[in-house]
Amino acid sequence: MVELRDRIAAIQAALAEEQDVKFADPLARHSLDHRFDHTAPEVDAAPAPTPAGERTNPFESIQIPAPNADSKPQFYDSIAQKFGLGILDEDEFTEYVVYDASLTNLRVCPLDMADHGHYYYVDYRFSLPHVPGVVLREGSERTGKSLGAAHIPIQGENRLGVGDYDRTPHEMVWEKMGNTGFWTHMRYEFEHETADGKRRVFHWIRTRNNIMDDQGDLVLVEQGKEQLVLCEYLGKGLLKWKKRGRLRLRTMEGFGQSWEIIVLLSWASVVEMSRRRARYRRYSPTHLIGI
User: Fold this and answer.
1) Is residue 35 part of a domain?
2) What is the pLDDT of residue 180?
3) Residue 228 domain boundaries
4) Quick one: where's region Disordered (predicted)?
């Protein structure tokens, strides 16, 4: 075995002559148990797999069945929207931000600041006979042109109409919209004739009730095609101050120019009916006496 002083002398000589020093290999370890003298071959590092030897993704072999008439409709959840059950960023859609315009009215503005043609004002009115409860106006002010109106009385059927209610209410075509839920108000149904001449049935579905809020999250789907979300509304919940939420409306070129108006008008009607129910619960006599 090379002594320490011999190593030091060899290093000093190499530094003086600028030569590499080669030391003797250390002796093999001899333990009491010979099994620990050498590393077991099974614990050696395995070589990197080649492309032919790589394992395949087990999820690629799963066959996803195509939706058919017998399959159950998909359940939509605002939380699951983050995982791809809603309108995704790669889809063609228009995004709006909903602001408080007054105590009850709303202002719908496009997220794209360069878009100057898609501003809407939602004018809410009290429950008066023969007076529409919702009027959708063009622009960001209450003085804008009327694009549509909705009658949402306390009792009776709800009706939606596209057109100028202030000037030509007799030329408007009214559609029915009603609650199709059994015990709750989770689903509202209405019909609309698209540009291709077909009458389609659509459903607004409430997906979640926000805490301390009078309106929940909503999605719009077509009957028989529930796997495709046409519009979704996500409220701010407790975080709302001036912003009430945001809307994402899928681009549907084959549905005509009135498609965006009927979607916003029906959405505003569902939101107003939810807010009215919250006010009735808050100020009802049974609530005041603690029942």
Assistant:
1) no
2) 85
3) 90-283
4) 40-70
